[in-house]
Structure formats: C-alpha cells, structure tokens
Amino acid sequence: MNKTIAASPQWISLLILLCSWLLSRIFATESASWLGIDFSPEMSVWWQVGFAMGMTLCLSLPYWWLIINAVFPAAVFYAMDLNWPPIVFMVALLVLVLIYGAIFLTRVPYYPSHPKVHALVEKLVPEGPGQQFLDLGSGMGGICMHLATQRPDCKVFGIEMAPLPWVVSWLRARCRNIPCVFLCGDYQNYSLKNYSVIFAYLSPAAMSALWEKACLEMVPGTLLISYEFGIPGQSIIPTYSTGETGMPGLYVWRMGSNFILAPEQLQG
Ligand SMILES: C[S@@+](CC[C@H](N)C(=O)[O-])C[C@H]1O[C@@H](n2cnc3c(N)ncnc32)[C@H](O)[C@@H]1O
What we know:
By secondary structure, the protein is α/β, with parallel strands linked by helices. It has 11 helices and 6 strands.
C-alpha cells in the first residue's frame, strides 16, 4: 500500500465515499437514459456500494475499510426509511462526534480497558511517596479512578482529547470525591517529564509517535506501560498478562533501557 494511503486511510475512505456517491448518481442517471431503464433510488445505492468496494480494493486499504465503505452508504440509505424524527439523528451525530470526532486526527477510538487491566497496572506502580501516574487518553477515567482509590500514595492524572469522555471523567471524579486530575487536551502537546508511570491504551497508529515522545521526554528509570499495542519494530510479545484467555497483555518499558521488561526485571 502507498505510504500516503497507509498514513491516512480515514481521509482516503471519506474521498471514496464521496466519489462513489457522485459516480452512482451520474451512472444511474446516464445509464437510465441510454438503456431506457428506470433505476430506483435503491438501485443507485447499490451502485454506490459497488463503486466504493471497487475503489477500496484498488487502493489496497485494509479489509475493515472494505466493510466500512460497503456498509455505510447502505446503512444511511435504509436508516432514512425509519421515519424517526430528525432530532434523533442530530443528537446521535452530536454524541458520536463528541466521543469519536477526534479519531480523524488521532486514529485512536474510545474503548475502555477492562478492570482486570486496572488491577494489573496498579501492581506495576512502584510503592512509596512521590509517585505520579498519567493515563494518556484517559477516556471516561476508569483506570485513573481505580488507581486513585487503591493507591492514595500516588498522584493520578489523565489527559483526554474527546470532550464527552473528558466531561464524564471529570464529573465522576467530582461526584465521588476522588482526587484525580483530568485534563482536556492533546497529549502530544503535554510534557511527559513529571511522571513515574505513564499508561497508554491507544492504537497501533499512535505507537511510533508515542515512543519517540516518551524517549525524548520521560525521565530515565520511569515506566511506560502500553496495553495491547507494542512499538512497531520491537518485540511483539507483551510481558504482562491479565491471566484471562484471549485478553491482550501489557508492554512495559523502563525508560533509558529501551527494553521491554519481564516481571523479574521490574523489581531491579
Ligand atoms: C482506547 S481509549 C482508552 C481509554 C482509557 N485509557 C481506558 O483505558 O479505559 C483511547 C482514548 O485516547 C484518546 N486519545 C487518543 N489520542 C489522544 C491524544 N492525542 N490526546 C489525548 N487523548 C487521546 C481517545 O479519545 C480515547 O478516549
């Protein structure tokens, strides 16, 4: 796959959807007048699905884009038959934009980590005063809230870019009187130098840039923990497991050593 396409499949996909919609309109109208066939609006949506799938295959986008580009036009078309009040679609769109709007820039969607992961991360935070923990992309604040309640010796911070998850995390901490600090913003513009443990549950698309930033800013000896996703070009085996079959593990690096840590090394 071409490098530009690989770096921004979301924009390419948007372009495919627009082009396939335009082509299907032209094709349906033109072929109707050439062949004297009366194409129904339903027919034109299936033309669009066909064009979108063809373009996705030609550009060799990963298979999930094929599914997205095929399902999306058909879903929009049939959703219009539901005859629901427009406000329902408006509210749904607004909620989705407030949660997922930033993925056009970050390519990291919101999905919460499992409580078993929170318990495992808690064990990795060194004992003693002065510990500062940061969750990069803190979502609705699950792991931060867990850590702040279980480890009062540790100051807990989360930074989140999506407005709705950030508001929810902030409200949860306020309502339950839990001393977490939730910041709203892009962690790329935030310094990582003050933290003894940094946790990230992002996506493969974000890992190279995160690694570069962590190497530049994190203090040697501090820990970087990534759930599920490793750094491209490094070991592909996570070193900590939740013990749950089928659940991904944690990658842990002690900064300065640049190696993934095995459990026995963490104590040293
Ligand atoms: C997979 S979720 C993880 C949520 C949470 N850390 C957890 O473990 O439940 C990733 C989150 O990172 C956020 N995110 C992605 N890129 C970001 C960035 N550059 N700055 C801040 N937040 C970001 C997304 O909005 C999303 O909520």
